[in-house]
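Exercise: predict the fold of this chain.
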Amino acid sequence: MSLAAYCVICCRRVGTSTSPPKSGTRWRDISSLFLTYEVLALKKAVTLDTQVVEREKMKSYIYVHTVSLDKGENHDPFSTVDIEDHECAVWLLLRKSKSDDKTTRLEAVQEMSEAHHWHDYQYRLIAQACDPKTLIGLARSKESDLRFFLLPPPLPSLKEDSSTEEELRQLLASLPQTELDECIQYFTSLALSESSQSLAAQKGGLWCFGGNGLPYAESFGEVPSATVEMFCLEAIVKHSEISTHCDKIEANGGLQLLQRLYRLHKDCPKVQRNIMRIIGNMALNEHLHSSIVRSGWVSIMAEAMKSDRIMEASHAARILANLDRETVQEKYQDGVYVLHPQYRTSQPIKADVLFIHGLMGAAFKTWRQQDSEQAVIEKPMEEEDRYTTCWPKTWLAKDCPALRIISVEYDTTLSDWRARCPMERKSIAFRSNELLRKLRAAGVGDRPVVWISHSMGGLLVKKMLLEASKKPEMSAVINNTRGIIFYSVPHHGSHLAEYSVNIRYLLFPSLEVKELSKDSPALKTLQDDFLEFAKDQNFQVLNFVETLPTYIGSMIKLHVVPVESADLGIGDLIPVDVNHLNICKPKKKDAFLYQRTLQFIRETLAKDLEN
């Protein structure tokens, strides 16, 4: 559209003084330009939306970088205009946020985040004029107003006769299919196969049964769209762990497509979490940061960070931390979640506490408060101090604010029959190397460390420390390990490998379960090697063990880790009258389990926390 417009340029140097500018003010001294315009004529008829103008009180601003101009030019004839003092503050903060000095930039972002008295248009002004670093900093500032964040740009329309499911399938099919490990190949082929069958059914084609992903199909009706999309998303999660594949996802419109899915499945947290895992993996690649910001993901994650759901907030925190290169040097790979601090903080972080779950556990659910009928009924009305879905994030973070608290997640299974990837045979040795690499990338070893583990997670901790002791580049992990807490860790094996919920578990126990058997050579070697290694180390150890049996399914009552198996041979061994699942889930904040754990952390890190 061509416009014939009359423009009046009005300028004034921004400052705290209200005195008129000197007559000798030159262009090089101007910090900002305020542009006002009056449209006199239009060559074509147009419809204008005046709501924005009304809402912004007829004000429209553009923030411009200062540039050096010819000293000889004389621009005195340009007029000036006065602005209110509170307007100056906004522009000064914007200028400050673009400073070459990092400390000045960080101060500006903090001052912006603490502004709670501005008019709506002032927040929008910052949203439109700030640079990506400032936007990410605001998203990672706890007190930031959500008005700092513009709505994501409009998404491109779907192709004719297409659907989000079909476009997701096309995105997956466009990713490289060579030089992949067996599990990525499996997830990819499964997702493409099942989505093809779903699309055929939707278009009236014949249904082909027999795929691994179709046990839920009860009729010749179509496969639930969210289920098929989950197959594709899980495959793309695996692909997004490869940097070159992230480039393909971005180039093929993946950021916009994933955003469309995120909105469509706002009531399906599992779908949203997989999408956030992909974005978090892509954010590990700094050359993709500008694309992620432009597509509007920072605004979406800023809102997710304020969610009451700990899992959603933690996934968002991982994405924003990977984007924030101003204050974060570490990179958080898939499965590594910072529970505290999730926002930027002035609190010095003096030590790390790491939580490693066990067989069939997870980064969040393993560490929840012990479930009870009363808690289930009352928890919507209770404060987190009385009931929490993740006690390290709520209780421990408040009691020890100088800690960085990390929880890790990895896939485990009781039986190969139900393995998510049939080709996957991950031993404790394989998983320990994988986790050690991820944790080192997250900066683990740069500060004093306390490891907290449940069940098989304790075996992983032992193996990680042994592996780290053999690698010079991992020596910091060993030197900074101050203590380890083992919650019912089967150092000498578990009865779990000898029983099963049903016959298929008995016939096809997973490699993880096999390695837990009492006669496992790998387990005995691990125990002997760790005891030898620990002789020369100066870390503290605390062991807890269950005394009550655990119901596995509805048929078997099993003492998963007996007292003799939980005895490492180092440190105190404390029996607790709970079952295997609840040994790491305190009933309440003043319960012995939590208070003894807190005492151990404080005593073990006493010197480090004082410094």
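Check your answer against the key: The first helix runs from residue 51 to 55.
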